Structure formats: structure tokens, C-alpha cells
Amino acid sequence: GDALRGLGTMATFSAVGAAAGDELVIQEACADAFRRAALASMAIAASQYQPSTSDDAASARDQVLEILDAQVTIAGDQFEDGVFSSLQALRAQVVQDLNARGAVLPTLVTVTVAAALPSLALAQRLYRDATRADELVTRAAPAHPAFMPRTFQALNS
User: Rounded CA gap, 111 and 107, in Å?
Assistant: First the structure.
């Protein structure tokens, strides 16, 4: 997740400065190359990312696609057909990979209870497994595990 965020920042790089003429052309070409290299690294990081829920996988996919789609548009506007086709193929691979991995993962659901209960009781009630109490505590971040919030996010299975 951290790699995706960091590379996402690099993949949106834009050159600033008072370049003109040939210097401007070179500056823009270097910025394009830098963004595309960061984007390729971002796609690799997405393939190595281990989402814990289908929502995590969808979020990672959307994060990569937002930046990738902008670069596809730039390549198309610059009439760089080879780059455009390569980025489109990369887009398809990212979507296929993260959708496939996310499809087998549990989803997050909003749990609402009438009163604040201990995490052990909620884990037993939700999953019939009190050993998953730590998982609920991690997701809900209560002040104390004996007093879970009345509304929080949990895995559906």
C-alpha cells in the first residue's frame, strides 16, 4: 500500500520551470519518461500487493487506474501509438489481476450493535470464533477491547 501511494505521487510528476523552445521539449519528454517509469513500477507494486479484503483490492485497482488513465490520455494526445497500446495492455492486466484476487477475498460490512460489547463476545457472535477478536480490534480501533464501538467495519466471513 505504501509503495502504491509513493509511486502514485511520482507518477503524477510535472516539470516546473522557465524552459522554452528545445529545452521545454526535452523537459516535457523527460517528465513523460519519468511518469511512465513510475507508473510501470506502480503496476509491479500492485501485482505484489496483498489485499486483505475485496474492498482493498478494488481500492488499489482504482488508485492505479486513475493515474494510468491520465497517462493513456497523454500518450494518445501526443500521437504515441506504441506507448498508448502498451499502457492500454498494462491497464487490462492490472484490472484482471486485482479483480481476480479481490474476487476470492471477503468484503467489509458495517456492523451495528445495540450496546458496546467486548471484542470476544462480538467475534463469537459474528464468526463463531472468539479467536478473531484481535481482528475486530484492529479494524475498529476501540479505546479498549472490552468496549467496542456500536458501529464498525468487519469482514463478512
Answer: 12
